[in-house]
Every structure is written in C-alpha cells, then in structure tokens.
C-alpha cells in the first residue's frame, strides 16, 4: 500500500512558532514603532505592507500616505474569525520550555515590569500626552495666556507629584527604576523596582529602620540578576541604594551597615561606577571592619594624594588612618597620621589620640608611651576634657592591668591634676583611704567595668587600703546580676574569701588558735595571672554577703550549698536574718522538702524568736502542695487547709508591715488563690474580710475575673482559655447585676454609685462568687454564719471580722505610713 500523503492540519499541529521563524516572517525594513502587539497582530489579517526601495519600479510612499495607511489599519475592526492562535514559550531550564499564560506575562518577560506597573506607566504617559495636546489646541484657539498659565501649573504639579525621593542632605532622586532585565529571574528586579517606587520610602529625607531592612532585602535578592548586566543599573539607583544602606542616624538601627556598604561598594566597582570621596572613605572603613585589613590600609595609603589632600576629606581621611593603623598595631604610622592632623591649620579632633593610647597600652613595653599620649591629650583638651574621656582612659589602663596609671587618671579627674601618686610607696591621705577608693569602685561598677573594679580591690589591699564590705558586696551583686557563669564563679570565690576573713576574725576574738577555715566550695584563683599567689581578701563578710549568696544559691537550685552557707553563718557569729530564713524555706520548697521548710520556719520563729515578714508568709503559702503540684491530691489538699489557716493566723499575729507595693499586691492574691485551690471556701471569705480590715484590701476587677475562671494566668490565647474568660466575665456581670438589683429593692437608684459604694460592691461580688464556687449561693445566711465564725476562730481573726474590735484592728494592722498612702490611692 502506498504511503499516505502528508497533510498539514492547522487544528492538530502545534501552535508554537520559534523565534527564528518569527524573525524570518517579519519585514526587513519594518519600523519598530509601527509594530502592533504580537497577540493582536496574530489575530488580525495582515494588510499589504508599503513597498520598499528594493521593489522594482515602486517608490517608498510619502509620509502622509504612510500615516493614512496606518490610521486605516488601526481603525479596522477586529475580525470574528480567531482560529489562528500564537502561543509563546520561555526556556525554564536547559532543554525544557514553559508556556506563558497570556499576553501580560509575555510583556512582563520582555519588558522586565509587572503588568500592573506597566499599565500604570502607560496610563500616566497617556494622561501627560492628552494634557499637552489640550494645551496646544488652546494656543491655536487664541488662548495663549491661559495656556501658558496652565502649562506652568502643570509643570509645577509634575515637580511636586513626581519629584521622587529626597535624601537627608536635600538631594533629590527622580523616579527610580531599573529596566532592561527579562527572563525567569527578573522577578527580584521587579520587586526591587516596586520598593524603589514606594512613596513611603525615605519620606521626609531620613530613612526609617524599615526602609533600611527592606532595601537590603530586595537588593540582596536582586544582586544575582543584576550582576549579569551591571551597566543597566542607573547611576541614580546606585546613589539611592548607597544613601539608604549606608545611613547612620539617630533613631535608626543599622547593625549590618558596614557589611552592606562593603558589598554595595564591591558591586559598584564591578559595575564601573565611580565612588564619591565620602563613599571611598566609608568603603575603605567597611573593608577593614569586614576583615580585609591589609587591603584596606593599602587602599588608604594609595589615596593619600587625593583624599588626603582635598580640604573636604582631609580630616576624615587622616582620622580613618589613625583608627585603622591603631587597631592593626601599627602605632608609629598611627602617630604620624595623628601628627598630620594636629599640625594642620584646621582645628583637629584631639580625641583622635584615644585609639593610639589604647593601642600603646595593649602593646608590650609601651605603657609609658601610652601615658605620655594621655598627658598630651589632656593638655590639648584642657578644660574641655569630659568625665567620659577620663572613664575611657581609665578603662584602657585597667584593661592593660596598669592600675597605678589608672588611679592617677582618676586622681586627675577628681583633683584636676594637682596630685601625683606615681612611683610613691605610700599614697597621700586624700587618696589612700577606703572612702576615696569606694568612690572609684562605685563608678567602675556603675559603668560596668567589673574586671577593672576587681583589679582596684586587689591593688588597694596591696597598698594597705582594705575595701569596705559595702563596696565588695556591691561588686559581688553586680557579678551575680550579669548572668555570666564566669562572673558567678568570681562572686562565689570573693564571697567565700570574705567569709573566711570573718571566721578568722571570730577565732581571733575568741582567743583561740587561728585555724584557717577550709571551704570545700572555695574557688581557686580569681583574676591573678598564673603562678601568682591567690588573692586573700581581708574584708570581713557581713549579713548582706550571706544574703547575696543565699539568693544566688536559691535561684540556681543549689540546695546543698545553701545549707552549707547556713551552717557557716552560725560559726561566723552573725545572727540569722529573716531574709536568709526566707531563702532557705524557698530552697527547701523547690527541693520538694516541704516538711523541712515548715520545721525550719517553726524553729526560727518559735525557738529563736525570729520575726517573719510578708515575704516569709508569701513563701509559706507558695510551698503548699496546691501551689506546687500539677495534679492535686485530696489528702494533701486537706492538710493544706489546716496549714493555710495556721499560716494566716501567724501572719495576723506577727509584728510586720508591708515594705514594697509588690508584696502588697502579691500576698492577698496568693492567699485567696491558695484557699480557692484547696477548696477552703469558708476560710476564703474570712480571709477576705480580715484582709479588708488589716490590709485595706479590696479585690480589683481583674482578680475577680481570675478567681471566676479559676486560673491565675490566662495570658496564653488558646481557645479553651478564651472560653473560660468569656464564661468568667459573664459570671461577674451576673453577680454585679444581682447586687445592684438588691440595692434597687432597698431604694437605691442602682446606676449612679459613689466610689465607696463601688468598693463595697467589689467586696460583695467576691463573697457571692465564693458562695457560688461552694454551691451555697442559695443557702440562707443563718446557715452560713456559724461556719464562717468557726473558721474565724481557727484563723485567729474572730474579734477582727465579727466583733469589729477597733483595738485589735489597730494592733494587727500591717500598713505602714507609705503603704497606707498607697492603699488610699
């Protein structure tokens, strides 16, 4: 059978037309601005092209004829037959093609713009053209003056509306746009263009933190695409990117500024964009900070004839050289650069000597040169030298472990250079006393130079000046507050060294043989170099020293260390304080030894007559099982009721007052929640009434809502918690409504209430809420009253709650003068 003839079927063949075929179909001399969009050309029938010069016997038509033919083509209606369709493809990967969705994506791939942006630009151009045509018609119609006025107004509007971005130095940037990129990777460039086109970017001339962050986000994403054709990035875009990424101003955080500047400067160098003088200096500094120190210094040297000689960059150039060479350790070159600045006709920045002082102090054997540079700086600054300058110099010498020079700088600050202590075996009385050293230690601790403060302590003791316990306790507390494990070890070692000094003093005072106390937890060397003897502190520990360490051991759950500290406290013949007792009770509770905590409390208060305070009872209530265990044991909860009532009785009878607003807010709340968890509803009502008389306590609305929900912390926004909050709010609103309805029945208007009536309402709602929790909201008062009286007797507040004995209330009131004023507020 002969082969079947091949038939070309438009309906079954692929609609893909390759680029080379399309190029061969296009007329050779067709002008690009006469071409219609590809999709439209494909759908419309082709009109005869105008004859070209290559056609024999035919001439190229006149411009008027060509314009007429074009108008006819544009006005020709769309044919109904659209059977011919052209599809466009792009290369998604080597050897793989991806079909474009529509004409908009085709225009986006070829133009590098989103369809939305391209539409907006086309619309704006059309409006501008229409406006200019209207003005031309007005001029031809004889309204020359009106047309000129409108033309000026139009230009003014364009300047206002399309003036672009304004930099911090009033420099103006036009409509920023990076064009000429197409293909599948042009999307990052389009995103960068969208960012540059935002009106909110750099509004007012000063970049915002969000501007800096998003600028680097979009630019870093577009770098790979831009690197394929750096020349397509306009100069104005480079300037704008530099202005934003290199910005460093007040209120704008730019922690990665130098890294961004370094990368941007490398990109601009690759693009062949020349850097301005200020940009070259910043790029050199960024190169140095990013680790290319040798290259940065070489670049700085090469610019000596340009940047180093121009008046506008002279000072910045040589200051940069001083800083870089000093950090690199090239102190000779840094000093030469500083001399160039100091000898110039311009008033120099004398503080540029600080980097040289720091570099010389860190250099072995150059400490004297560092001191000489400091003296020169002090002389040049004169009265303009500030306390901050002295602090920086002192820190430099302390870091170099040259305490004598640091002390001399501090003496210069305090006495204006009138006293010289260098090289003297005995310090003058105005300096060699623990009051003066205490001022220095206080300042060092205040600025956070804890290592320097410790070196001062060691130096002072070697010079015969023993630091006071207050000063060393301040250093220990600062070490512990820093949160560093190394500082915690230093604090521990210094504290135990002070404790050993206290024990030695006690043994001498008792005229016994001096036996050095061996502390099994004492740390070894604390700040001295290897091979040097351990620093033995001569300052004796005080109760505050023990309190600091007790709080630290309790927070770190070091129960054994805390027990050892408490034992040593007796040997040191320092009476146990309430604070130490509270820390040990809390430590026992955290360690799960609740019985030991209660036994310690009974021993300290009953046998040793130690007075508890509000923090003691707060710790005791928190130690009960209902506050410690996730799953509540009914037997333990019953024991907690007895213990809770006993704690409340001791709290009322003990002689103490509130010392801080925090404990004033925490203690009543903890008492009520503890009784609620233990389901001691009778004790809860009695406690609320007693605290009303003794604490001036009235439950706030937030506490009522927490009690209604049964949880003290509803900060996590889960669905269950939100449901409980809504239910609790409804319960409170119902109880408030019931209370006000009762007032209305008694003749009250119900709505307008005084402040005193609102407070009484909160107290009443609390009791109604407790009765609701107990399921006794409908119980007659005659049945509830005997139960409350029994609980009041057990809690030791019957005379206060039911008899309203003014003498007992005044005797057991826990409000001092300050807390009384706070309670009234």
From TrEMBL:
PROSITE patterns referenced in this protein's UniProt entry, alphabetically: PPR
Repeat positions for PPR: 577-612
A single GO BP: mitochondrial gene expression
Disordered: annotated span: 36-59
Pfam families from the UniProt entry: PPR_2
Superkingdom per UniProt: Eukaryota
Coiled coil: none
Entry GO terms, CC: mitochondrion
MF terms (GO), sorted A to Z: mRNA binding
NCBIfam families with a match to the protein in the record: PPR
Protein name per the record: Pentatricopeptide repeat protein
Species whose genome carries this gene: Trichocladium antarcticum
């Amino acid at each position: 059978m002969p082969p079947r003839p091949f038939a070309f079927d438009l309906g079954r063949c692929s609609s893909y037309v390759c680029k080379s075929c399309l190029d061969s179909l296009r007329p050779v001399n067709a002008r690009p601005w006469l071409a219609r969009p590809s999709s439209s050309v494909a759908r419309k029938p082709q009109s005869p092209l105008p004859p070209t010069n290559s056609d024999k016997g035919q001439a190229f038509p006149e411009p008027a004829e060509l314009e007429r033919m074009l108008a006819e083509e544009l006005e020709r209606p769309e044919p109904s037959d659209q059977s011919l369709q052209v599809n466009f493809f792009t290369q998604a990967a080597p050897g793989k093609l991806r079909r474009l969705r529509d004409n908009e994506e085709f225009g986006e791939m070829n133009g590098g713009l989103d369809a939305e942006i391209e539409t907006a630009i086309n619309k704006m151009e059309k409006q501008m053209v229409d406006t200019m045509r209207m003005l031309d018609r007005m001029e031809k119609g004889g309204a020359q003056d009106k047309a000129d006025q409108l033309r000026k107004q139009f230009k003014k509007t364009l300047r206002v509306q399309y003036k672009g971005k304004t930099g911090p130095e009033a420099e103006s940037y036009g409509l920023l746009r990076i064009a000429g990129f197409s293909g599948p990777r042009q999307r990052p460039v389009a995103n960068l263009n969208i960012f540059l086109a935002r009106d909110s970017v750099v509004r007012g001339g000063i970049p915002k933190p969000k501007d800096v962050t998003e600028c680097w986000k979009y630019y870093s994403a577009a770098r790979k695409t831009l690197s394929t054709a750096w020349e397509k990035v306009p100069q104005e875009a480079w300037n704008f990117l530099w202005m934003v990424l290199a910005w460093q101003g007040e209120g704008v955080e730019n922690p990665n500024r130098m890294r961004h500047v370094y990368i941007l400067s490398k990109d601009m160098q690759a693009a062949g964009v020349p850097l301005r003088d200020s940009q070259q200096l910043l790029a050199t500094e960024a190169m140095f900070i990013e680790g290319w120190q040798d290259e940065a210094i070489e670049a700085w040297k090469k610019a000596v004839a340009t940047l180093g000689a121009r008046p506008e960059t002279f000072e910045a150039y040589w200051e940069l050289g001083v800083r870089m060479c000093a950090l690199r350790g090239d102190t000779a070159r840094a000093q030469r650069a500083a001399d160039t600045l100091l000898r110039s006709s311009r008033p120099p920045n004398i503080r540029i000597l600080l980097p040289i002082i720091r570099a010389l102090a860190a250099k072995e054997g150059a400490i004297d040169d560092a001191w000489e540079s400091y003296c020169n700086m002090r002389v040049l600054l004169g009265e303009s030298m500030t306390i901050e300058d002295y602090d920086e110099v002192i820190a430099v010498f302390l870091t170099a472990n040259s305490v004598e020079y640091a002390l001399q700088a501090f003496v210069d600050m305090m006495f204006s250079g009138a006293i010289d202590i260098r090289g003297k075996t005995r310090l003058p009385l105005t300096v060699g006393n623990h009051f003066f050293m205490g001022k220095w230690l206080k300042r060092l601790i205040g600025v956070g130079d804890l290592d320097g403060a410790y070196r001062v302590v060691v130096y002072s003791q070697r010079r015969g000046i023993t630091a006071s316990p207050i000063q060393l306790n301040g250093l220990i507390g600062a070490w512990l507050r820093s949160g560093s494990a190394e500082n915690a070890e230093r604090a521990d070692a210094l504290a135990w060294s002070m404790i050993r000094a206290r024990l030695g003093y006690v043994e001498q005072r008792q005229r016994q043989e001096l036996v050095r106390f061996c502390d099994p937890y004492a740390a070894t060397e604390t700040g001295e170099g290897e091979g040097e003897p351990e620093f033995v502190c001569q300052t004796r520990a005080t109760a505050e020293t023990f309190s600091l360490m007790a709080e630290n051991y309790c927070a770190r759950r070091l129960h054994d260390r805390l027990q050892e500290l408490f034992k040593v406290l007796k040997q040191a013949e320092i009476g146990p304080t309430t604070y130490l007792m509270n820390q040990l009770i809390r430590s026992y509770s955290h360690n799960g030894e609740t019985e030991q905590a209660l036994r310690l409390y009974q021993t300290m208060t009953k046998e040793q007559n130690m007075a508890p305070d509000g923090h003691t009872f707060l710790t005791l209530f928190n130690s009960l099982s209902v506050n410690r265990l996730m799953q509540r044991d009914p037997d333990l909860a019953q024991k907690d009721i007895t213990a809770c009532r006993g704690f409340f009785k001791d709290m009322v009878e003990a002689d103490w007052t509130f010392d801080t607003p925090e404990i004033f807010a925490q203690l009543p709340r903890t008492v009520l929640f503890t009784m609620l968890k233990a389901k001691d509803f009778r004790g809860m009502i009695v406690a609320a009434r007693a605290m009303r008389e003794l604490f001036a306590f009235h439950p706030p609305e937030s506490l009522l809502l927490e009690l209604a929900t049964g949880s003290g912390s509803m900060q996590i926004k889960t669905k269950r918690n939100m449901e409980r909050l809504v239910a609790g709010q409804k319960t409170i609103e119902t109880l408030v409504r019931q209370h006000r309805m009762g007032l209305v029945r008694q003749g009250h208007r119900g709505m307008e209430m005084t402040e005193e009536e609102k407070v009484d309402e909160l107290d009443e709602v609390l009791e109604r809420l407790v009765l609701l929790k107990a399921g006794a909201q409908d119980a007659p008062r005659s049945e509830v009253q005997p139960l409350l009286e029994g609980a009041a007797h057990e809690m030791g507040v019957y005379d206060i709650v039911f008899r309203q004995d003014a003498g007992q209330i005044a005797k057991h009131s826990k409000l001092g003068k300050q807390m009384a004023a706070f309670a009234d507020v």
